[in-house]
Fold (rape) hypothetical protein.
Amino acid sequence: MASSSLLLMSLFLLLVVPSSVLSATLRSDIQALESIIRSIDPSSISPSSYLSTWDFSEDPCEGSGTFLGVMCSFTLENTTSRVTEIDLDDDGYDGFLSEAIGNLTELTVLSLDNNRFRGPIPETVFQLRKLTKLSLSGNFFTGDITPGITKLKELKTIDLSKNSIAGEIPPRISGLRSLTHLILSNNHIDGRIPALNGLWKLQVLELGNNHLFGMLPKLPTSLRTLSLCYNSLAGRISPLHRLKHLVSLDLSQNRFSGTIGHEILTFPEISRINVSFNQFISIEVIQVIGMETHLRILDAEGNHLQGPLPLNLATYGNLKDINLRSNMFSGDIPRIYGKRLENSWRSLYLENNYLTGTLPVEFQRISKQIRGSLSNNCLQCPKNVTICQGVQKPKSQCTNAMQEEGLK
Ligand SMILES: *[C@@H]1O[C@H](CO)[C@@H](O)[C@H](O)[C@H]1NC(C)=O
Ligand SMILES: *[C@@H]1O[C@H](CO)[C@@H](O)[C@H](O)[C@H]1NC(C)=O
Ligand SMILES: *[C@@H]1O[C@H](CO)[C@@H](O)[C@H](O)[C@H]1NC(C)=O
Ligand SMILES: *[C@@H]1O[C@H](CO)[C@@H](O)[C@H](O)[C@H]1NC(C)=O
C-alpha cells in the first residue's frame, strides 16, 4: 500500500516536475499577460476566441492549446521563456491596451487588428525596442502618434489604419529606416506629410481618408503602393515622377492640379492609377508602341481635362478599364477606341464631357456587352447601341463645344 503510493508519487514527480522546471515564462511576462486580459471586458471574450484559451493555471509558453495568439522564445542556455509575439484574432475584444504591455520587452510582434480597443496607445508600447510589427488596425484607438514611436528602430510595419488617431505625423518617423509598410489611412490625422525620403525601404504608404493638406513631400523611390486619397492635398504631382517602382497609385479626392505626366503612365510596373476627383487640366499619354506597359486601370474621373480624347491610350497593351467621366474633353470619339473595346478593353466611361460628332461605326459593330457610358455629351448616339443609353446634353450647352471644334 505504502510502497505503491510511493511509486505513484515518484512517477508523478518524474512526469510533472521536469516539465514544470522547463515551463518558466519570465514572471513579469506572465504578469503583463494577466494585466492585458484584465483590461478587456470579459463579456467581449467569446468561448471560441484566442483570449478564452488564456488559462493562467498553465504556463503561457508551455501549454498546448492554451494561450493562443502568444508566441515565445526558447533559448537552450536559458530556462526562462519570453513572450515574443502577441497576434490576437478579431473577436471584438472590447477594452484598453494595458500599460503592462511595456514589460514584454522581448516582443517583436504586436497585432490586435479588428477589435474594439479604445483609448490612446499606451506610451509604454514605445519601450518595446525589438518590435518589428505594430498592427492595431480597425479599433477605436484615439490620441496622437507621439514621437515616442521613433524609438522603435526595428519596426518594419506600422499599421494604425481605421482608428480615431489625430494629430500630425511626427517628422522624425523618417528615422525608422527599416520601415517597409506605413499605413495610417482612415484616421483623423492632419497637418502636412513630412519628408519621408529617408525611409529608403518603404514599399507601402497609405495615408488615405485623413485631413492632410499641403503639397507632396519628398517620398522614397522604393514605394510600390502609394495611397493618399480623400485628403486636401494640393499642388503639382511632378515629385512623383521619380517613383519608378510604383505599381499602384491612388491620389483620388484631393486638390492636385496641373498635368498628369507621361512619366507616371509609363512606370515599368504601374498597373493602377486613380487620379479621380482632383483639378488636373491635362494628361500626357505618349505612344508606347514596342514598350511593355502594365497599366490596367486608369481612373481620371472628375477633373478639368480638356482637348481631344487621348488617342495613344489605344497603344497600352494591358489596359482594361478606363474612366474619363466628368471632364471637359471635346471632339470626336476615336474609332480606335471602338476597336479596343471589341478586343481588349473591358469598360469605357466617357459620360459628362463635351464630345461631339457621330458614334464611330466600330462601336455599333461590337457584339459583346460593354460596360460604359457615353451619355451627357454632345454626341449623335443611336439609341439601339447600349453604350448610348441615357440622354445627351441640351443643345444650348453644346453650341460652344461645336463652335470650338469648328474653329479647329
Ligand atoms: C534569461 O533569463 C533571465 C531570468 O532568469 C532573463 O532576465 C533574461 O532576459 C533571459 N534571457 C533571454 C535571452 O531570454
Ligand atoms: C512591470 O514590471 C515591473 C517589474 O517587474 C513592475 O514593478 C511593474 O509593476 C510592471 N508594470 C506594469 C505596468 O505591470
Ligand atoms: C478611384 O477613386 C474613387 C474615389 O476614391 C473611387 O470611388 C473609385 O472607385 C476609384 N476607382 C477605381 C477604378 O478603383
Ligand atoms: C440600330 O439601328 C440601325 C437603323 O435603325 C441599324 O442599321 C443598326 O444595325 C442597329 N444597330 C444595332 C446594334 O442594333
